[in-house]
Amino acid sequence: MWDFLNLFSVPVLETSIRLATPLLLACLAGLFSERAGIFDIGLEGKMLIAAFFSAAISFNTGSVWLGLGAGILASVTLSIIHGLASITFRGNQLISGVAINFLAAGMTVLIAQSWFKQGGRTPQLEGAARFNPIEFPFAETFMPVPVAGPVYASLIGGHALLVYVAIAMVPLTWWVLFRTRFGLRLRAVGENPAAVDTAGVSVVGLRNAAVLICGVLCGLAGAYLATALQAGFVKDMTAGRGYIALAALIFAKWRPWYALAACLLFGYLQAIALRPDLLTAAFGFKVQIQLLDALPYILTVVILAGFVGKAIPPRAGGAPYVKER
Amino acid sequence: MTIMTKLMSAATGLALTATAAVADPAIIFDLGGKFDKSFNEAAFNGASRWAEETGGTFKEIELQSDAQREQALRRFAESGANPIVMAGFAFGSALSEVAPDYPDTKFAIIDMVVDQPNVRSVVFNEHEGSYLAGIMAANASETGTVSFIGGMDIPLIRRFACGYAQGAKAANADITVISNMTGTTGAAWNDPVKGSELTKAQISQGSDVVYAAAGGTGLGVLQTAADEGILSIGVDSNQNYLHPGKVLTSMLKRVDNAVYKAMLDGTDMETGFNVMDLSNRGVGVALDENNEGLVTYAMLSETYAAADKIISGDIKVHDYMSDESCPALDF
């Protein structure tokens, strides 16, 4: 029994939250973009470039806030390129996204090498150049209290600021999408852009706005990786998180609260994969870690196949809008 | 991407045809680039040392893509460079193709065995160096638990882990050794975030010395170990300086010595199988001003004693790659 409960112990859940945060930010980024009808394979690339520029500018200025700004700016720049290619010039959204991933992977290493000469990484960040964990008041005092103490000190508290920002983004996204006029139009543009156009609202404008929001959120995700979880940039450090976020988005059926649940689940799967000892103790046999690593994708396929409800993407997703003449 | 590759290869071609004639040695760096603070940089340092000591010059190229391997090899061979040294196991298949076409040129490949009459294959006994790292870890540990984080789960990395576990258990039979691999794909070499979380997971299991053999992922391991106040062990190059006073030691792989030796031997280089181990200082542990406060006299004497016994053959460190199993660690 205890062995099984250990699977949900505070250190494991704490790790889950840390690992879920970049997924959640990227997932919400994809949500805005795809709800407006623009598929975005380039989440990975945007996170990567944001990770690099946030680390590089943090190091050069000593301020993590300037770094965060630079990361968001870099990510938004890639968003603008994506918008230009797939909205203005009506190019293929998937190809544009793949191009962005390549661009980011190559450019970050190239610039890092020419600026810092450390083999494509940035120097280590220290002190104010990093987002440090926020200690909640009296965390140390409450620590000895069983269960509640560690939960308060390290599960609820003790995370970097961006973790709380990411979680706050969930209700905010829900509110914007489902309770504002902008959100209604944004969703409509992903379902039936012609109707929105007939109503006299700019399809191009709305889609660009969605893609820009996507850029900002990816910027936060990248900055979190490089300045909060890590103390600097290493080449390809996003390690496929952008794709897992896309899987989470499908798993969440393009809904904000589901996205939170999906990202926490995927984060938990990644966290438990780090503790094979607990798994062996709980189940009594050796669980293959590779299976856990693959589980997010397997679950997504299951959802896509329609076993657990149906995942219906925005109807106009992937198709550039051409005004009728 | 393709245009980039083409431009790069065109530039490579020009650079290589511009310099020709004399039999200078040449070196090819792998994709990590020659300033990677680790493997390739060690190779570059070895070549530079040769150039400084002999006053000679060498040709060099940093690869930008996998497609350039064979091309770079052929260009160097055509231009008369001899010997041609390449750093990295990934050159294996390209070299097997190229070597028979240039029987008068000598090649040296590091970390890989290519069975051709004009090739020197240099491999390192990483398990011996890791064994010494394990002894130091067991001595430094106060909790009785030490741990290992590997990059991609391949036999070469398990060899590091296995040597480390054997060393730790030799120094303290009751010690617990935890081992985790970052992943099973190439992304596992560059995932410092996962490296950090693995380190934290191992700390929660009681580990207070963590050995990282994981490329870029290892930087995350060393960072987290320093942040959380436990000791870490670096790999390949001397990484003690990354967090002075927090890195117990680094398992050195003297790629620089292998390159230096190949260039020094020049065109008369002996070919065949070349093992770099403790006896010829091919592997070892790093001691410098950054970790002198961490290494006690007792730890040092035990480590040196073990090194002597390995060299004399009294201690046999089991090589994971010899039979794909490890007596000290269960994967």
Automatic annotation (TrEMBL), chain A:
Which domain of life does the protein's organism represent? Bacteria
| Gene Ontology CC: one annotated term | plasma membrane
Span-the-membrane segments of this chain are: 65-87, 94-116, 151-177, 209-234, 254-274, 294-312
Membrane topology for this entry? Answer: Multi-pass membrane protein
Identify the keywords attached in UniProt to this record, alphabetized: Cell membrane, Membrane, Transmembrane, Transmembrane helix
Where is the protein localized? Cell membrane
Question: What CDD domains does its record include?
Answer: TM_PBP1_transp_TpRbsC_like (cd06580)
Primary location: membrane
Q: Which GO terms describe its molecular function?
A: transmembrane transporter activity
Is Kinase tagged as a keyword? no
In Swiss-Prot or TrEMBL terms, this protein is called L-arabinose transporter permease protein
Automatic annotation (TrEMBL), chain B:
Q: Which residues form a coiled coil?
A: none
Cite the source lineage: Bacteria, Pseudomonadati, Pseudomonadota, Alphaproteobacteria, Rhodobacterales
Q: What is its main location?
A: membrane
Keyword annotations for this protein?
Cell membrane, Lipoprotein, Membrane, Receptor, Signal
User: What protein family is recorded?
Assistant: Belongs to the BMP lipoprotein family.
The reply to whether Cell membrane figures as a keyword in the UniProt entry is yes
Its gene name is: tmpC
Annotated ABC transporter substrate-binding protein PnrA-like domain ranges read: 29-317
Q: Which organism is it from?
A: Nereida ignava
What's a Pfam family in this record?
Bmp
Kindly list the GO CC terms recorded for this protein.
plasma membrane
Q: What is this protein called?
A: Purine nucleoside receptor A
Record-linked InterPro entries: BMP_lipoprotein, Peripla_BP_I, PnrA-like
Task: Report membrane topology.
Answer: Lipid-anchor
| Protein's cellular compartments | Cell membrane
